[in-house]
Design a protein that fits this description.
Elements lengths: L16 E2 L3 E3 L12 E4 L3 E3 L2 E10 L2 E9 L7 E20 L4 E16 L2 H9 L14 E2 L4 E2 L2 E2 L6 E9 L2 E4 L12 E2 L4 E3 L1
Antiparallel strand pairs: 1-14, 2-7, 3-5, 3-15, 4-5, 5-6, 6-7, 7-8, 8-9, 8-12, 10-11, 12-13, 13-15
């Protein structure tokens, strides 16, 4: 219920991180063409539930939707996180130890929203004043950009994040985001986003 993301896609909380030590190549930045389009994961398990992630890249705008479900077939909705970003800029290319390639990138936060779909979650969130709100409503989206949710302080709109992706055929793998000025050096490989 309270999964909070800093990063683009999310492949949030995937258990296995492969430390794919990346080497920076001396190539210039590129356009967003190779990641343009819609990318979707299969239903995957991540405690305490099951998720489907959708990533839509259109020019320099990115939308990441993470749908939480209570069942392994991802048919019963629990809640939906939507993260929107702007100013996607793809930078230097990277070659991973596996031989696969990718790019460093930067992106700016636009909004983080959550829509709860279970009455029990709404009650708990209101009791806890989750993200500073005590007026959560079932099936109603609320913007929590820049808020403190539990012990996590989220960045405000227009914060620049640095990221890394690896592209293998129609599979896109992302790493965590960084706001400290350093690019991540590995990507999550357990659950790929598949080009649609």
């Amino acid at each position: 219920m309270r999964r909070i993301h800093y990063w683009l896609v999310l492949i949030v909380g995937i258990a296995l991180i492969v430390s794919s030590c990346a080497k920076k190549d001396d190539s210039s930045s590129t356009t967003t063409t190779e990641v343009e389009g819609t990318w979707i994961t299969n239903c995957y398990e991540h405690e305490p539930g099951y998720y489907i992630d959708t990533l839509i890249v259109s020019g320099t705008d990115v939308t990441h939707k993470s749908e939480s479900h209570t069942d392994s077939s991802c048919s019963t909705d629990n809640g939906t996180w939507i993260y929107t970003y702007s100013s996607l800029s793809i930078g230097d290319s990277v070659t991973f130890e596996s031989g696969s390639t990718g790019h460093y990138f930067s992106i700016a936060i636009s909004t983080f929203t959550y829509t709860p779909n279970l009455a029990s979650d709404v009650t708990t969130m209101n009791d806890d004043a989750w993200c500073g709100f005590s007026d959560w409503t079932i099936n109603t989206e609320k913007d929590y950009t820049g808020k403190t949710c539990g012990s996590t302080s989220l960045p405000v709109a227009n914060t620049t994040l640095l990221g890394l992706y690896m592209l293998v055929g129609n599979n896109l793998f992302l790493g965590d985001f960084s706001s400290d000025g350093n690019y991540p050096t590995s990507v999550y490989t357990s659950v790929p986003l598949v080009k649609q």
